[in-house]
Design brief:
This protein is of the alpha/beta class. It has two domains: about 5-45 and about 160-230 and about 330-395, FAD/NAD(P)-binding domain (3-Layer(bba) Sandwich), CATH 3.50.50; about 100-150 and about 235-325, 2-Layer Sandwich (D-Amino Acid Oxidase, Chain A, domain 2). The protein contains ten helices and 18 strands. The strands form three sheets. Strands 1, 2, 8, 9, 10, 11, 17 and 18 form an eight-stranded mixed β-sheet that branches. Strands 5-6-4-13-14-15-12-16 form an eight-stranded mixed β-sheet, with helices on both faces. A hairpin with a 5-residue loop joins strand 9 and strand 10. Helix 1 (about 15-25) crosses helix 9. It is elongated. The structure holds flavin-adenine dinucleotide.
């Protein structure tokens, strides 16, 4: 049929979840297309800090939680991929830092030793001698403790580009998919989705499985699905970006009195060559109650109090709000792991963390195999003239 595309699997949403899945499913021989309404990575993925958590941050609660256990294998999976020997070859992806630091002011010493004594994975955390502190903490005015943590930090944009590159022939840009574009039969089985891209004709996409990895966009897609057993929650953040020339790089969590780090800092390079500090943690969680001016003021206060020996007067600041989109939890807290739910021939998935994309993909593949779907050659000729979405710009280059 002229305006019909037939594939084994259609993925909606090109963030980390959709792109990781696309790579794995095509390697297994399935015919797959990925549909994206904005730009690849445009949702949470490009705004993430790129930390491949192994759960140590969650162990700040002083005990192993379910969340700690479910994420503990992820750094190994990613390390194998980065070495070119894993399930996806990510050897071209830029590693910004091979480790993270944890630091505290001297007033928190008791809390830190309790934390370190309590965690079973403590071999991953190393107390550093002063001479091994990163340069920024070598200043004589710094009196706290520094620990090294075995968690890598990735350049998320090079990651997105690497995941996209081999699959440009099956990634298409379309107008945002809405409930009315989903065509169901009476039993609730999704027959097709109808996609548009002006001025091209509407195209019907038929697939054995439809996978919704649209992040926060899953919420409106779910409104069309009869089974209401799957729902989404949002946990908002108010992130801060600071740009300054000649700023020292830092990848670190500042330990405060709560389970969330007081501030989490990652370092990136802006397109004009200046250095960016990207600020999250408690500052971003509690910052949702502040407007942008108050949030920037708070960030400045925190930086002055944590690094009194650094002159931040040349720094430019900007802040923005973003929701983390996840499977709904009764208590509204962060899910312990990724969420993967099947409704007839639809799978809805949220990774919860960038780091958990490989786990989400394993769970989706298990469901696909259980459904008995075999690999076929797809027919995507009707999409030959369709545009491909661009890879999104880093948020600092968009806002500063
Ligand atoms: P998204 O990245 O949001 O992608 C969804 C895609 O679907 C988008 O491209 C969007 O344009 C598209 N889309 C939406 N609606 C539609 C529609 N109707 N039709 C078609 N396409 C649609 N995790 C970590 O492990 N480490 C970190 O350091 C980290 N830092 C974070 C920092 C911040 C500020 C935030 C918000 C999250 C962070 N996370 C981190 C969590 C992580 O970023 C997310 O769990 C992950 O990126 C979610 O990926 P996703 O593919 O599900 O969704």
């Amino acid at each position: 049929m002229k305006n019909t595309v037939k594939v084994d699997i259609a993925i909606v949403g090109g963030g980390i979840a959709g792109l990781w899945l696309l790579n794995r499913l095509r390697a297994l021989g399935y015919s797959v297309i990925l549909l994206e309404s904005e730009a690849l990575g445009a949702g949470q993925t490009s705004k993430s800090q790129g930390i491949i958590h192994g759960g140590m941050k969650y162990a700040l609660q002083g005990m192993m939680t379910n969340a700690t256990q479910s994420i503990a294998d992820m750094p190994t999976v990613w390390q194998q991929c980065l070495a070119g020997t894993g399930e996806i070859d990510l050897s071209a992806v830029q590693v910004l830092s091979p480790k993270q630091y944890l630091w505290s002011s001297n007033t928190l010493g008791g809390k830190i030793s309790g934390f370190l004594a309590n965690i079973a994975l403590s071999s991953q955390v190393q107390a550093l001698k002063r001479e091994d502190f990163p340069d920024i903490f070598q200043h004589p005015n710094f009196k706290g403790h520094v620990y090294a943590l075995n968690e890598i930090v990735l350049d998320v944009h090079s990651l997105i580009r690497k995941l996209v590159k081999p699959h440009q022939d099956v990634i298409f840009k379309m107008a945002s998919l809405k409930a009315e574009h989903l065509v169901f039969d009476e039993s609730g089985y999704l027959n097709e989705i109808q996609i548009n891209a002006e001025p091209l004709d509407t195209i019907a996409v038929k697939a054995e499985k439809f996978i919704f990895t649209a992040g926060a966009g899953n919420e409106s897609l779910l409104q069309a699905v009869k089974n209401k057993g799957v729902a989404m929650q949002r946990r908002p953040l108010h992130m801060v970006v600071m740009k300054m020339p000649f700023l020292q790089p830092l990848y670190a969590h500042c330990l405060g009195m709560s389970a969330t780090p007081r501030i989490t800092i990652t370092t990136h390079q802006a397109q004009d060559g200046q250095t960016v500090w990207y600020l999250g943690g408690q500052l971003a969680e509690e910052g949702v109650a502040r407007d942008q001016a108050a949030q920037i003021q708070m960030a400045q206060q925190e930086l002055h109090s944590l690094f009194p020996w650094i002159d931040f007067s040349a720094a430019e600041f900007v802040s923005f709000f973003i929701d983390r989109a996840e499977g709904l939890q009764e208590d509204g807290k962060r899910p312990d792991s990724c969420t993967v739910k099947e409704i007839e021939n639809i799978i809805v998935a949220w990774p919860t963390k960038l780091a958990l994309a490989p786990k989400l993909t394993d769970e989706v593949i298990t469901l696909i195999k259980q459904s008995g779907i075999e690999a076929h050659t797809g027919d995507v000729r009707a999409l030959r003239a369709w545009p491909m979405p661009i890879v999104t710009k880093p948020i600092w280059d968009e806002l500063l």
